[in-house]
Specification:
globular, four-stranded mixed β-sheet, 4 strands, alpha+beta, Glutaredoxin, 21 helices
Length: about 375
């Protein structure tokens, strides 16, 4: 009876080969199968849902075991980061299909329903949906828009570069013929670099492309390309590459470009702890781009509280902190303003701000210990 109950409670599981990619490829070579490799993170809820809810399903498991040697790698375990870099994994879970020699045939990522996941597995097993076939078909006829788009979409799904493919196709097209619906799809999915001829053409012919898509889609594409150009070097804290891209983007003289430069300036200077540059960038741009964003105002003022010593700059941070609290009252906001005054130092105004903190806490039913302790320190 206990055995029956235990069997009812137990959930089916799926066994992955987690001994490393090299061992998985060796097994695939021996058995003459493709490799299906999952890169995941133990802290990722989507990964858990796939591992525990989708992979063990009998239909999914049967399809996987029939067509693939299935391996997995936790990105936080030894070798995980290297594997993620090798296959351009930036979000989890990521799925890479390889031939036994390690060539990427197909890639995709995210959390899927059973039916959608099965469809991806079927496509991954189909040679005509795999990257080598699509790449060869495109190379045989570079001017074919449909072949170009099919390859770009497959590369994009696998998180692989698309810019060279888009450029090769678009170079075969006369400028007068670029603004078509199909060409826009190629540009929207394939062009990723602000320095390319194609991006510059889109900038100069936004109305023509809007006519075959929409104003919003064209504007969003321009914004996304600018953002991606800055995001990659900013996240890597590669200041040389970042400033090269920054100069190029600022030359566009677009307000949206300037606002994105401001966002990534803060990111890169915070990463490298260049507080002088952080101070210079935020003093210039915060009033213009963040005046109505209470969260960003508070975050920037918080950096000043912890890292900036210049009195003139601290006075500006106090204005930002007060503005953030006007937009969204909070205990943290009142406390931050009081602490900024204390750091300045401006003790009379720090006491006033601490009293406002205490009054707010009483009004909303929060404890007043922090306010009381601060007042005791200040008075």
């Amino acid at each position: 009876m206990l055995c029956c109950i235990s069997s009812l409670w137990s959930q089916p599981t799926f066994d992955f080969d987690e001994t490393g990619l090299e061992n998985t490829l060796n097994t695939a070579q021996k058995e003459g199968k493709l490799v299906f490799y999952m890169v995941y993170a133990s802290w990722c809820p989507h990964c858990h849902k796939m591992k525990e809810g989708i992979f063990p399903d009998p239909d999914v498991a049967a399809l996987l075991h029939t067509n693939f040697i299935v391996g997995a790698q936790d990105v936080e375990q030894p070798g995980g980061r290297a594997t993620a870099r090798k296959y351009n994994v930036t979000s989890y879970p990521a799925f890479v299909v390889l031939d036994p020699q390690g060539t990427v045939l197909y890639g995709f990522g995210g959390e899927f329903s059973k039916s959608d996941f099965i469809k991806e597995l079927q496509d991954a097993s189909n040679p005509e949906k795999q990257l080598p076939y699509l790449r060869k078909a495109f190379q045989n006829q570079v001017s074919d828009a449909n072949r170009c788009l099919a390859l770009i979409l497959a590369l994009k799904k696998a998180n692989l570069p698309t810019g060279e493919i888009a450029a090769a196709y678009l170079a075969t097209q006369a400028k007068s013929n670029l603004a078509t619906s199909l060409n826009w799809k190629i540009i929207a999915n394939g062009v990723t670099d602000v320095s390319t001829r194609e991006f510059q053409y889109v900038l100069k012919h936004q109305k023509e492309f809007a006519a075959v898509s929409s104003d919003q889609r064209v504007a969003r594409k321009i914004e996304n390309i600018i953002s991606e150009s800055l995001k990659i070097p900013a996240q890597k804290a590669d200041t040389i590459a970042y400033h090269k891209q920054r100069a190029l983007i600022q030359s566009l003289k677009l307000r949206k470009a300037d606002s994105l430069v401001y966002v990534y300036d803060k990111i890169v200077y915070e990463k490298v702890k260049d507080w002088k540059s952080y101070q210079r960038a935020t003093l210039q741009a915060t009033p213009e781009f963040d005046w109505n964003n209470y969260q960003d105002l508070r975050n920037t003022a918080g950096i000043y509280l912890s890292e900036i010593k210049d009195e003139t700059a601290l006075k500006q941070a106090i204005l930002w902190s007060k503005r953030a609290t006007q937009l969204q009252e909070s205990k943290d906001g009142y406390l931050q303003t009081a602490l900024l005054y204390e750091k300045l130092p401006d003790i009379p105004n720090a006491i006033t701000a601490a009293k406002m903190l205490r009054e707010f806490c009483e009004r909303v039913g929060f404890g007043t210990k922090e306010a009381d302790d601060l007042l005791k320190r200040l008075q």
